[in-house]
Design a protein that fits this description.
The protein is an alpha/beta fold. The protein contains eight helices and five strands; from the N terminus they run βαβαααβαβααβα.
Length: 190
C-alpha cells in the first residue's frame, strides 16, 4: 500500500508522513529532499531522505522552478516510478495525489490547517518572526497554486476530490493524527 500525504506548507506533511510510516512499519520518503538532490545533481537514495526543516523556504527554488519546469517533471517522474515499483511507502507530496494513476492500493490524504495555524508552525520551525512567516506562507501558497495549475491543471488546496480523506490537523498532536489515520487505514482494508 502507498499513502500519499498532501497539504500546504507547514500543515505537518513531513512529520505526519514519518510518524505514520513508523507506526505502519513502512518506508517514508520526503519528496522535498529528493527535489533538493535533483536540483543539486546528487544521487538519490529514497531510503535516506531527510525532512525539510525550513531549507526550502530560503532556497530560492521557487524562482528556479518557475523558469525551469523540468525540475518538477524530473521529481514527479521519479516519484511516479517509485510508487509504481515499490510498496509500503508513505510520501509527502504536493503533486502525486493528483497525477498518480497507479492501480495499486493508494490512499490519498489532504491535511487541512488554516494559514494562521501554519504561520505559527512555520514561525516556530524556522525561527522567524510572525511577519516573515506570514509572508513565506502567502508567497509559497500562491506560487504552488499557480505553478501546479500551469503544469498539471489542478489548483492545490481547492481541487480536493482526488483525496480519500481530508483531515483537520489544527488541534490534535502528530501522535493523535497518526493514530486516527492508522484506524482509517485499518478499517478500509479489513
Amino acid at each position: 500500500m502507498i499513502i500519499l500525504i498532501c497539504g500546504f506548507t507547514a500543515s505537518g506533511k513531513s512529520y505526519l508522513s514519518e510518524s505514520l510510516a513508523k507506526k505502519l512499519n513502512y518506508k517514508f520518503v520526503h519528496t522535498s529532499h529528493i527535489l533538493k538532490l535533483i536540483h543539486t545533481n546528487k544521487d538519490i537514495d529514497p531510503n535516506k531522505t531527510k525532512m525539510n526543516k525550513g531549507w526550502y523556504e530560503f532556497s530560492n527554488l521557487d524562482s528556479v522552478r518557475h523558469k525551469d519546469l523540468n525540475l518538477d517533471y524530473k521529481l514527479d517522474n521519479y516519484l511516479k516510478k517509485l510508487v509504481k515499483e515499490k510498496d509500503n511507502l508513505v510520501l509527502d507530496s504536493w503533486t502525486l495525489p493528483y497525477i498518480s494513476n497507479n492501480k495499486k492500493k493508494i490512499i490519498k490524504i489532504w491535511l487541512h490547517a488554516s494559514p494562521k495555524v501554519r504561520t505559527l508552525r512555520l514561525m516556530k520551525r524556522d525561527k522567524v518572526s510572525l511577519e516573515k512567516a506570514k509572508k513565506i506562507i502567502k508567497k509559497k501558497d500562491s506560487f504552488n497554486k499557480r505553478h501546479f495549475k500551469k503544469i498539471y491543471g489542478f489548483v492545490l488546496g481547492k481541487d480536493l476530490d482526488v483525496f480519500d480523506h481530508i483531515i483537520n490537523v489544527e488541534k490534535d498532536s502528530v501522535k493523535e493524527i497518526t493514530s486516527n489515520i492508522y484506524e482509517l487505514i485499518k478499517s478500509r482494508f479489513k
